Amino acid sequence: MRKLWSRLIVLAIATGVLMVVSTSAFAQDAAPTAADLTTIKVSIDTVWVMLTGFLVFFMQTGFAMLEAGLIRQKAVVNALLENFIDAGLTAICWWVVGFGIAFGATSGGLFGTTLFMPGVAEMSAPFGTLNISVLTMFFFQFAFAATASTITTGAMAERTDFIGDLIYSAIIAIAIYPVIVHWVWGGGWLGANLGFYDFAGSTVVHTVGGVIALIGAIMLGARSGREFGSPPKPHNLALATLGTMILWFGWFGFNPGSTLGAYGQGSLIGLVTLNTTLGAAAGGLATMFFIFFRTGKWDLVYTLNGTLAGLVAITAGCAFVSPTSGILIGLIAGILVVLATDLIEMLKIDDAVGAFPVHGVCGIWGTIAIGLFADSTLTTFGANAGKAGVLMGGGFEILGVQVVGSLATIAYVSVASVLMFGLLKVINRLRVNKKADIIGIDVYEHGASIWPDVLPFPEDVPAGGETKGATAPAAGD
Fold first, then answer.
1. From CA 416, how far away is CA 212, in angstroms rounded?
2. 457 within a domain of the structure (yes/no)
3. Which pLDDT does position 149 carry in this prediction?
4. How many angstroms separate the CA atoms of 462 and 52, rounded?
5. For tag attachment on the chain, is the N or C end more exposed, with fewer CB atoms within 10 Å?
6. Is residue 86 a contact partner of residue 156, using CB atoms and an 8 Å limit?
7. What's phi and psi for 431, nearest 5 deg?
8. Strand partners, 33
9. Which residues of 253-291 are buried (b: 16+ CB within 10 A; e: fewer)?
10. How far is CA 32 from the centre of its chain?
11. Are 64 and 86 spatial neighbours (Cβ–Cβ below 8 Å)?
12. What backbone torsions phi and psi does residue 414 show, to the nearest 5 degrees?
């Protein structure tokens, strides 16, 4: 009883002290100064951008799980290490060079020339007119940059030389991705001069990653044993589904976080979040029913990619279109991803996870869709402020700029990718050694197996061909 009373007395004293302190603070801060309001804005916006940046970074896990689930079992260790280390490599390259090229003072609207290796001097430096610092912007944009090379690894899975992966990931972070960022978001010729719209990256992130993935898959060649018309079966649909759900979750950082602040932007954040949700839902449903009408089966893998297609497509216009338009954009993306997958297969291009149909084709579609569905009340900045899309009663101004921006991006990224992968071919670092096709890239490159009890090492297989303690080969192997 004595202990109880002691605790009650201590609690009463503490409560009294808090009341006195809070009352005093309230009296002193009854009329906050302009400096106080600025501090509040900076705090709110910094927390918002950092938290959404954490969500975007978590998408690396989603990409890793999705790719690991969709490819064959004998290459999963390789895919996981590529996805994991790409983030670390991109962080260094983005800090040293990429961020400055993307957001530094512009040189003719083509690339930045300052902000390389930001550090202590930039701790309190605001980023432009925003309520966040240069370092906060650095982290948020790093999370985006890491996505571009990760998209590429999926298309080129199971047969890329590991050192080659490190080299091309570094080049993407240094010389390809940041140039497009500068053109669109960094004060370059597309965004600042022409009024090109890409709110969260259908062009900047997804078209870039998708085009690099396509060029890489073409120049790399098909996987060993690949039969076109009968692609290998995914080895673990649970992982693929988990990865897709993580990506959808992370997209709520990707798109809403691109407001680059929360103070006074609640209504815009709400619209962006709603459009992101509806675009994803419409894409998944459209693909699921489209495949069912074609095959009579409810296909999980296509539905996953359809949802991602809807997310990619709505990413550019999530702040510029109405929810109804957002659904239409997602629905069309859900159909396009299937048709694009058919075309890639017909052309005998081995895209292991459908990276180009999802990110490339639907990134282009989402970019152009702004020119069709833009709402004049939402296009509030840039050279085309106050203008609407063609189908919303406007002219062709926005559509024309969107097409020009998309084509320019595709052209630059294609040329750069051909040069990059061509160099890797010359130095024999594009495709893994042929021995890996026989024993598996995981064993050859890493001396590991994702499940050694199911897929043993070659030295664990006796001459008779029966595995020690192993079951039948996994689907797709």
1. 9
2. no
3. 82
4. 52
5. N
6. no
7. -105, 140
8. none
9. bbbbbbbbbbeebeebbebbeebbbbbbbbbbbbbbebb
10. 40
11. no
12. -65, -50
Query: Are 198 and 365 a contacting pair, CB within 8 Å?
Result: no
Whether 5 maps to a domain, the answer reads no
**pLDDT tens for each residue of the chain, 477 residues long:** 545 444 544 444 345 434 444 444 444 555 678 777 888 999 999 999 999 999 999 999 999 999 999 999 999 999 999 999 999 999 999 999 999 999 999 999 999 999 999 999 898 899 999 999 999 999 999 999 998 889 999 999 999 999 999 999 999 999 999 999 999 999 999 999 999 999 999 999 999 999 999 999 999 999 988 999 888 999 999 999 999 999 999 999 999 999 999 999 989 999 999 999 999 999 999 999 999 999 999 999 999 999 999 999 999 999 999 999 999 999 999 999 999 999 999 999 999 999 999 999 999 999 999 999 999 999 999 999 999 999 999 999 999 999 999 999 999 999 999 999 999 999 999 999 999 988 899 999 998 988 877 766 666 544 433 444 333 333 343
How many domains is the chain built from? 1
Residue 466 forms part of a structural domain? no
Q: Which domain holds residue 153?
A: 36-123+133-251+266-426
Contact 438, 232 (CB under 8 A): no
The answer to whether the CB of 353 falls within 8 A of the CB of 155 is: yes
The answer to whether 143 touches 201, Cβ cutoff 8 Å, is: no
pLDDT at 456: 66
Q: Is the dihedral of CA 361, 138, 177, 86 positive or negative?
A: negative
13 Cβ contact partners less than 8 Å away, ≥ 6 residues apart: none
DSSP letter string, 297-356: S--HHHHHHHHHHHHHHHHHHTTTS-HHHHHHHHHHHHHHHHHHHHHHHHTT---TT-HI
Is 389 within 8 Å of 399 (Cβ atoms)?
yes
Structure tokens that stand for 89 in this block = 């490599």
Give me the DSSP letters along 225-268.
T-BTTBPPPPS-HHHHHHHHHHHHHHHHHHTGGGGS--TT-HHH
Domain containing residue 58: CATH number: 1.10.3430.10
CB 319, CB 378: distance < 8 Å:
yes
The widest CA-to-CA distance across the chain, in whole angstroms, is: 86
Written as six digits, the tokens of 257 are 């976080």
d(CA 141, CA 134): 11
Q: Give the span between the Cα atoms of 385 and 376, in whole angstroms.
A: 8
Measured between alpha carbons, how far is 45 from 37 in angstroms, rounded to an integer?
12
